[in-house]
């Protein structure tokens, strides 16, 4: 019955549908078609070059795309890196300034879509976007890391705190890791010494010393200091400076074997200033300090002689004024030219770059807070610790500049 009825109604249904189409086309209230067969669109864009031609850092660098028929309104240009959009920050009809997306690949197709143009512009060559920041080594949320240093072969040594033992780990350039030595305590600050020993401090009035392969029970309490020490560094004469919450900077003769207190001299009393981080550069001792009211600043003190005597404090950078006291500086280091990097707990600017007294965020789009400790490798890599309750990692940052020399490295 159903099949028979369907056969009877098919011609009738066709007639109704045809009538509806004719009525719709003739209805004066029916909207005009949006399709204009005579509209060829705006001029098709084209790309002639991309600079830098060798590639760029993903998520950081601004590249220049040169070509034709772009829009001089930034928002009317869409620049794709494979399927990800870059950020157009400047536009003319012949050039675009674009911040790359955080896409790491050596086979990136760059395409530009311009509003009103029907066809994309395709760059003829594949582009390379590399990572400026890499997670480095085997560390994860279960590895509690505190400080680090590197030797001349770029082997990374890291102070670990764990149950039941603190340890030092070594990570080679292939990122293979092993235990370097046991340790009596974690190191709030550490440095490799001239003979390959690790010297470290741990917020107490002691300077510790470890050799590779040392078990925990043989960690040496090397010297007793005049104040609690948080950080330390060597100068070019082999003197070791240590400073912390004791408001003093001590200078230690590491070749002295006269006992716990022998060879330790108070080089400077800082009165109300406590040392958070300490670095030696260009015959000065630089210190990141805090007061009892949490005001923070970086000072430098001249090294006056071969024995390590220090001159008067000179203000280098007022961190509290710069940050409006809204973030805490946790560590710092210097580049080969004396520019300063400050690691902090700032969510918007975890790493600050200071040059000629002026600060700005460095790789802020891809680094995360807090940055609690830093050390240079032997060239342009800066190694830093990003340590939270959920994340405990070492990151290697390609800064495109060399770090200041660390004089204690063997």
Describe the protein.
With 410 residues, this protein is mainly beta. Helices cover 7% and strands 44% of the residues. It contains two helices and 35 strands. It is elongated, with a radius of gyration of 31 Å.
What proportion of the residues form beta strands (DSSP E)?
Answer: 35-45%
Give a short account of the largest sheet: 4 strands, antiparallel
Strand order of the largest sheet: 1-3-7-6
The computed structural class is: mainly beta
Shape: elongated
What's the N-to-C terminus distance? Answer: 99 Å
**Cα-atom Rg, whole angstroms?**
31 Å
Poorly predicted runs of 5 or more residues: 1-24
Question: Regarding quaternary structure, how should these chains be classified?
Answer: single chain
- Percent of residues in helices: under 10%
Would you tell me the overall average pLDDT? Answer: 91
Total count of strands: 35
> Helix count, per DSSP?
2
Task: Please give a handful of descriptors for the protein shown.
single chain; mainly beta; 35 strands; 410 residues; elongated; four-stranded antiparallel sheet
Care to give the gist of this entry?
The chain has 410 residues and is mostly beta strands. It is 7% helix and 44% strand.
Give the helix/strand layout.
Layout: H1 2-26, E1 46-51, E2 56-57, E3 62-68, E4 77-81, E5 84-85, E6 87-91, E7 95-99, E8 105-108, E9 110-114, E10 121-122, E11 127-130, E12 133-136, E13 144-150, E14 156-161, E15 166-171, E16 177-183, E17 189-192, E18 198-201, E19 206-210, E20 220-224, E21 231-234, E22 239-243, E23 248-253, E24 264-269, E25 274-281, E26 284-290, E27 296-302, E28 314-317, H2 319-323, E29 329-334, E30 340-344, E31 351-355, E32 358-361, E33 371-376, E34 381-387, E35 392-398
Parallel strand pairs: 2-11
Antiparallel strand pairs: 1-3, 3-7, 4-5, 4-9, 6-7, 8-11, 9-10, 12-35, 13-14, 14-15, 15-16, 17-18, 18-19, 19-20, 21-22, 22-23, 23-24, 25-26, 26-27, 27-28, 29-30, 30-31, 31-32, 33-34, 34-35
């Amino acid at each position: 019955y159903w099949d028979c009825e369907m056969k009877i109604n098919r011609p009738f249904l066709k007639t109704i549908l045809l009538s509806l189409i004719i009525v719709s086309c003739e209805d004066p209230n029916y909207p005009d078609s949006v399709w204009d067969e005579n509209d060829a669109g705006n001029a098709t864009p084209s790309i002639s070059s991309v600079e830098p031609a060798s590639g760029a850092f993903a998520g950081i660098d601004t590249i220049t795309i040169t070509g034709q028929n772009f829009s001089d309104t930034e928002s009317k240009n869409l620049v794709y890196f494979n399927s990800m959009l870059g950020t157009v920050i400047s536009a003319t009809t012949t050039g675009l300034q674009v911040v790359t997306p955080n896409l790491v690949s050596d086979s990136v197709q760059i395409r530009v879509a311009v509003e009103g143009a029907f066809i994309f512009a395709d760059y003829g060559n594949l582009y390379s976007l590399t990572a400026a920041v890499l997670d480095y080594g085997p560390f994860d949320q279960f590895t509690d890391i505190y400080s680090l240093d590197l030797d001349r072969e770029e082997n990374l040594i890291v102070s670990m705190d764990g149950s039941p033992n603190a340890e030092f780990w070594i990570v080679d350039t292939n990122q293979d890791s092993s235990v370097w030595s046991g340790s009596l305590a974690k190191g709030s600050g550490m440095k490799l010494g001239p003979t390959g020993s690790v010297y470290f401090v741990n917020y107490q009035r002691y300077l510790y010393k470890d050799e590779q392969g040392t078990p925990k029970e043989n960690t040496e309490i090397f010297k007793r200091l005049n104040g609690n020490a948080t950080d330390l560094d060597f100068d070019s004469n082999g003197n070791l400076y240590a400073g912390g919450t004791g408001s003093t900077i001590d200078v230690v003769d590491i070749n002295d074997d006269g006992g716990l207190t022998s060879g330790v001299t108070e080089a400077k009393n800082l009165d109300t200033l406590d040392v958070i981080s300490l670095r030696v550069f260009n015959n000065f001792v630089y210190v990141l300090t805090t007061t009892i009211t949490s005001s923070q600043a970086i000072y430098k003190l001249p090294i006056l002689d071969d024995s390590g005597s220090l001159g008067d404090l000179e203000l280098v950078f007022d961190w509290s004024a710069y940050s409006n006291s809204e973030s805490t500086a946790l560590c710092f280091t210097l580049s080969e030219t004396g520019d300063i990097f400050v690691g902090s707990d700032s969510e918007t600017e975890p790493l600050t770059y200071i040059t000629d007294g002026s600060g700005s965020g460095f790789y802020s789009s891809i680094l995360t807070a807090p940055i609690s400790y830093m050390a240079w490798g032997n060239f342009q890599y800066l190694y830093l610790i990003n340590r939270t309750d959920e994340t405990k990692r070492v990151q290697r940052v390609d800064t495109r500049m060399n770090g200041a020399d660390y004089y204690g490295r063997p």
